[in-house]
């Protein structure tokens, strides 16, 4: 069916996800690079503190999925444009699918299974709320 | 009956630039920034995944992002992201409205102005984080 052709869906996805990614990534950059100490303030306590909050879990997992699918679809278009040899093209496309899937699964697991207060770690490396428990 | 003498072709080749106008630069820059951001994204998901393994390991990995050279790299990354974001909005507008496709050149200069404004807001703060004490 023409209406649901893959390239058409991909074209729509790039515009919709691109629009959403602007809000997601600008927020991500403001919180991580501009607020407080910027890049120098990013450490385990900062990330674990953020990911202990369901809002940031869902924010980050949405960002992860949209960014990786948007980016890998962009790379698919680039490969289509410049690689003519069938064997090389197939190798690159298969690598792209494997790496994208791996990173989406890995990132999603990290976001939802991170323990912000791992036992045996020095308390000064952990978020402040770990001390209360 | 006279025989037509072959005339020299009138086409003049000016280097290898494809047209060389705003539309081309918009396309070239969108592609280059997109590919650059994609490869950073691959590394970024992997470095963030170490947060799941061990607080000290994650902090050590993050320390490599806090050096002066990486700080400049982050500035370049943000510059690429901000351009890709605004130029992407321009692409969506040009696709969707007749007005924007008539004024796509002016919109490209609008993208450059918005990009400059955001970078002027971002750079001093980021460079202070990286180079200030």
Automatic annotation (TrEMBL), chain A:
Protein name as annotated: Unannotated protein
User: Transmembrane region positions?
Assistant: 12-35, 55-79, 91-114
Q: Does the keyword Metal-binding apply?
A: yes
State the InterPro entries in the record: SQR/QFR_C/D, SuccDH_FuR_B_TM-su
Its lineage reads:
unclassified sequences, metagenomes, ecological metagenomes
Query: Which UniProt keywords are listed?
Result: Heme, Iron, Membrane, Metal-binding, Transmembrane, Transmembrane helix
**Known Pfam families for this protein?**
Sdh_cyt
GO MF, one annotated term = metal ion binding
Q: Does the keyword Transmembrane helix apply?
A: yes
Which species is the source of this protein?
A: freshwater metagenome
Q: Where in the cell is it found?
A: Membrane
* GO CC terms: membrane
Predominant cellular place of this UniProt entry's protein? membrane
Automatic annotation (TrEMBL), chain B:
- Where, subcellularly, is it found? Membrane
Q: Which UniProt keywords apply?
A: Heme, Iron, Membrane, Metal-binding, Transmembrane, Transmembrane helix
Q: What is its main location?
A: membrane
A GO molecular-function descriptor = electron transfer activity
One Gene Ontology cellular component: membrane
CDD domains in the record: SQR_TypeA_SdhC_like
> Which InterPro entries does the record associate with it?
SdhC_prok (IPR039023), SQR/QFR_C/D (IPR034804), Succ_DH_cytb556 (IPR014314), SuccDH_FuR_B_TM-su (IPR000701)
State the Gene Ontology BP annotations.
tricarboxylic acid cycle
Kindly list the residue ranges recorded as spanning the membrane.
Answer: 28-46, 75-94, 106-123
Q: Which Gene3D superfamilies match?
A: Fumarate reductase/succinate dehydrogenase, transmembrane subunit
**UniProt keyword annotation of rRNA processing present:** no
Q: Which NCBIfam families match?
A: succ_dehyd_cytB
Protein name, per record: Unannotated protein
The scientific name of the source species is freshwater metagenome
Source species taxonomy: unclassified sequences, metagenomes, ecological metagenomes
